[in-house]
Amino acid sequence: FVHAGVDPSLRLEQQGDTFWWGHRDFIAMEKHFEGFRRIFAGHSPYKDGFQQYQQVTVLDGGSGYGGQLLGARIDPNGHVLELLED
Asked: Of the candidates 63, 52, 53, 66, which has an alpha carbon nearest to the alpha carbon of residue 85?
């Protein structure tokens, strides 16, 4: 779980502010990152709601900018069981 993303070219301990500010290649990741099956982020520059990509799930309905607060119930394997909307 991260705020805005990871830099897929850096190891976990090298991420620094990337967790907070994201990285341009984050959503397009095609391989597992550091052995994690899926990365969940609560911020997207697009604020386009619930989106699932190959390795990434984003929950950003624009809360704080006039949009919805989103959450999800997930299983231990990273599958979304239920989408929670405000």
From this structure: 63
